[in-house]
Amino acid sequence: MADHDPGSKKPATQVVTGGRRKIWTGAVVNPPVWRGSTHLYDDVAHLREGLKSNDDGRFFYGRRGSPTQWSLAEALTEMEPGAAGTMLYPSGVAAISCALLAVLQPGDEVLLTDSSYDPSRSFADVFLKRMGISARYYDPLIGADVATLFGPNTKAILMESPGSLTFEVQDVPAICRAAQAAGIVTLLDNTWATSRFFPALEHGVDITIVAATKYIVGHSDVMMGAVTTHDKYWTRLRRIAQQLGQVVSPDDAYLAARGLRTLDVRLRQHEASALQIARWLKQRPEVGLVLHPALPDCPGHEIWKRDFKGASGLFSFELSDGDDQSRAAFIDALTLFGIGYSWGGFESLALPVDPAKHRTATQWAGTGPLVRLNIGLEDPDDLMADIAKGFEHYQSAQS
Ligand SMILES: Cc1ncc(COP(=O)(O)O)c(C=O)c1O
Fold first, then answer.
1. Any idea which UniProt keywords this protein has (predicted)?
2. Ligand 1: which atom is nearest the Cα of residue 160?
C-alpha cells in the first residue's frame, strides 16, 4: 500500500486508506491507540528543538495529539478536496463554537440560518453576544439575496444545509459567492451530507464542520466534531483550537477512525433505506409533508438535485391532522426505533420535533406535528412494518 498518496482515489477507497501512514500504523491495519500526555525527549537539546515549530504529526505533548488523532484528521482532510487541514474537537458543538471563535472578534456580526441547530443559535445569542458579537438570522431559502443583509460589521455566515429538523436545502454556492464578493467568511454545518455527499470547499465554503458524532463515528458510542478548511483559515483555526485546549482522546479517535472505514457503504445503505421509507410514507394517508431533500415536498429539493451526490438517512415527516398526544402515541408504539437525541448511527431513532419554537426570521408553516426519523441499518421492510403498527396507535389516539 502506498504510504501517503491521497491522489484521485474514489470516496470508498479514500475512507479505507486515509491516514494509514506506515509510521502511524506500524504492522497493524488501523493506527493503534497512542495514549499519553507526556511525550519523552532524548535530551534537553531535543526538547528545545521541539519548541521551534508547531507542526502537526510531530510528538510534542498530549494536547497536540498522537498518531491516532493525526491519522483521523488526515483522513478527513483527504476526503475534502481543497482542504489544508482538519481540527478535531470533543463534540460537534465544540467544533461549531471554536470555528466561529476563530473568525469573529468583538464588534463583528454573524449571520446564521434560521434553521440552525439549536445549540448553534444559543452559542451565538448568549456567548457571542457577551463578547460583543451580534447575530442575525436569515431565511434558509434566501440564496444570493443574503447580500441584502450584509452590513459593515458582517464578518461571517454560518449555514446548515439541509437544516437538521426541517431539511431546507440552501443555495450554498450562491451564498458563498455573495459572501466572497463582500469579504465575508462562510462556514457550513455539513453533518447531514458529510464531504461524501457535499464536498463543501469545492462549492465555495471556507470552513466546513461536521458533528463526527453522527455519520463518521456511525455507532452512537463517541462524541466528536471536526472542522476542515483551506489554507487561508487553517493556521487561525488551529491556533484557536490549541489556545482553547481542544483535544479528543486517542480512544475516541480510534473508534472514529474505525467508523470512518465503513462510512461509504453505510451512507449508501442509509440513503437507500431512508429513500424507500420516505417514498412509502408519502403514500400513507396518515402523512402530510415528507421533508426529505431528495423528494419534491422538501424546500430546496431542486438545489439538492443540482449540488448533492446523495442523501443520508435523516428526514422528517408531518402527521396529518394529528396533535402532540397522537404523535406521542405513534412514537411510543414503535419498537425498532429508539427515542433519543442524535442520529447517524446504525440504529433507527424517532423524535418529536417542534421547529416553530426555534425560529425568529421566518415562521414554520407546517400544519401537522413533525416526526424526525434516523433511518438506521435495519431491514427497511421491518422498519416500515414497525411504522405501520405505530400508525394504528396514532389512529386510535385520534379517535
Ligand atoms: C446538525 C447538527 N450539528 C451539530 C450537532 C452537534 O453535535 P454534537 O452532539 O456532537 O455536539 C448536532 C447534534 O445533534 C446536529 O444535529
1. Lyase, Pyridoxal phosphate
2. 1
Q: Which three cell numbers stand for residue 286?
A: 396518515
**How far apart (Å, rounded) are the C-alpha atoms in residues 145 and 142?**
6
Q: Classify residue 32 by its DSSP letter.
A: P
- Is residue 371 within 8 A of residue 353, CB to CB? The reply is yes
Residue 6, pLDDT score: 65
* 3-state class (DSSP) for residue 346: coil
All structural domains of the chain with their residue ranges = 11-260, 263-398
d(CA 190, CA 212): 10
How far apart are the CA of 57 and the centre of ligand 1, in A?
28
How far apart are alpha carbons 37 and 65 in whole angstroms?
Answer: 9
Instruction: Using alpha carbons, list the distances in angstroms from residue 5 to 13, 68, 189, 208, 300.
Output: 12, 18, 28, 23, 37
Task: Spell out which residues line ligand 1, taking CB within 6 angstroms.
Answer: 91-93, 117, 160, 164, 189, 191, 211, 213, 223, 225, 342
Q: Which of 20, 155, 196, 214 is catalytic?
A: 214
What does the pLDDT look like over 160-173, one tens digit per residue?
A: 999 999 999 999 99
At 307-353, the pLDDT tens digits run 999 999 999 999 998 999 999 999 999 999 999 999 999 999 999 99
Please confirm, yes or no, whether 22 is among the known catalytic residues: no
Sign of the C-alpha dihedral, residues 305, 309, 313, 314? Answer: negative
**Cα–ligand 1 centroid distance for 182 (angstroms):** 29
Q: What is the four-CA torsion angle of 304, 349, 196, 247, rounded to 10 degrees?
A: 130
Instruction: Please list, in sequence order, all residues whose beta carbon lies within 8 angstroms of the beta carbon of residue 269, skipping any fewer than 6 positions away.
Output: 377
Query: 346-376, pLDDT tens digit by residue?
Result: 999 999 999 998 899 999 888 899 999 999 9
Encoded amino acid at 80, one letter: E
Q: Which three cell numbers stand for residue 223?
A: 462524541
Beta pairing class for 287-291 and 314-319: antiparallel
Confidence at 245, pLDDT banded by 50, 70, 90? very high
Let me know: does 342 contact 349? Beta carbons within 8 Å.
Answer: yes
Looking at domain 11-260, does it have CATH number 3.40.640.10? yes
Half-sphere exposure of 43 (CA within 13 A, CB side): 1
Give domain 263-398's CATH superfamily. Aspartate Aminotransferase, domain 1 (3.90.1150.10)
- Concerning whether 155 is annotated as a catalytic residue, the answer is no
